[in-house]
Design goal:
By secondary structure, this protein is mostly beta strands. It has one domain. The protein has no helices and seven strands. The protein has a seven-stranded mixed β-sheet with strand order 1-3-4-7-6-5-2, with no helix packed on it. A hairpin with a 4-residue loop joins strand 3 and strand 4. The protein is globular and about 40 Å long. The termini are close together.
């Protein structure tokens, strides 16, 4: 985990949908590799995934923003928790 100055991209409130029917209550993996995680300690935003990839961003839950890259694939998840642990 690293500190960064990354901010979430411009986003709007919306809904996330998958291309496949998924069963509720089950976890599904997206990547086989661990994704990088960055924290902006000035704004408390956390980025899981690629902070540099551009695309469309949607806030699907309060303070939870998913970024879908121009390729149509998930690129990052931006979270702003109520509080962060001391780093």
């Amino acid at each position: 985990m690293g500190e960064s100055n990354y901010q979430p991209p411009s986003y709007s409130k919306g809904v996330l949908k998958t291309e496949h029917d998924l069963n509720r209550g089950l976890a599904y993996g997206i990547y086989d590799l661990d994704l990088p995680m960055n924290v902006n300690i000035k704004t408390d935003w956390v980025c899981i995934g690629d902070p540099d990839e551009v695309g469309k961003a949607v806030e699907f839950i309060n303070n939870c923003v998913a970024v879908i890259g121009d390729s149509g694939n998930f690129s990052s998840l931006r979270l702003k928790p109520a509080s962060l642990p001391k780093l």
